[in-house]
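Posted in: Protein Modeling Q&A

I'm a second-year student putting together a small comparison for a lab meeting, and my supervisor asked me to include a predicted structure for UPF0173 metal-dependent hydrolase ACFOKC_01335. I've never done this before, so apologies if this is the wrong subforum. The sequence is pasted below exactly as I got it from our records. If anyone can share the structure token output, I'd also love a short note on what stands out.
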Amino acid sequence: MELTWHGHSTWHVSVGETDLLIDPFFDNPHTDTDPEELDPDHVLLTHGHADHIADVDRYRGAHFVGTPELTGYLTDEYGIDDSTGMNLGGTVELGDAYVTMVRADHSNGIDTGYGTSAGMPAGYVISDTKPTQVADAESTTFYHAGDTSLHTEMRDVVATYLEPDAVAVPVGDHFTMGPWQAAVAVDWLDAEIAFPMHYDTFPPIEIEIEDFEREVDATGSQADVHVLDGDETFDLADALYY
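Accepted answer (user: helix_wrangler)
Welcome! Here is the predicted structure, written out as tokens:
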């Protein structure tokens, strides 16, 4: 599994022969990627705010996944019909990937954050094996927490049953968790690798990223924190098994 961070909450995830793009928003200072260069099979949307769906129209040939309210909006606003509306707790098989939609605590107005609701906000757990209650040591699993505050479902459900190897958590504060809450999330999730996201995009979420690293250390977590450069790719399988 290869993970590429394109700044903010935008991730490109390759699972076998399947390419997933999460929350396409390329108008951020951490990326130089031309969104037209990417050709994902599937686009996953955590919620409807503009800084997470701004570039959906670049991927009209892809299959979209989100809440029914959000995929319905894509049909009405952009004419995108190739979509799957799902909801919290559900798992869909997308090529070589299994994608489970999980809870995020946030607001979810369309585009500007006001007006029409896009249903519940979400995070996604992406794995190369189907999630079951039987632990699979050979599976590789990545958790994109979405825009969220700290909540105990991370510890009680995501960590316990979905067992992510790597997690991407928002750390910018103001609109989501800040460094200390994100560090607690990393500790609760018991993952081997943690990536910060959703920071330094706008003035309200500018932070000293070293604060997050220190807070993770302070929890006693054994997770390795990787602060990726924009457009940097991380090979998760290599990191876990070699």
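A couple of things worth pointing out for your meeting: The mean pLDDT is 95. The longest strand covers residues 97-103.
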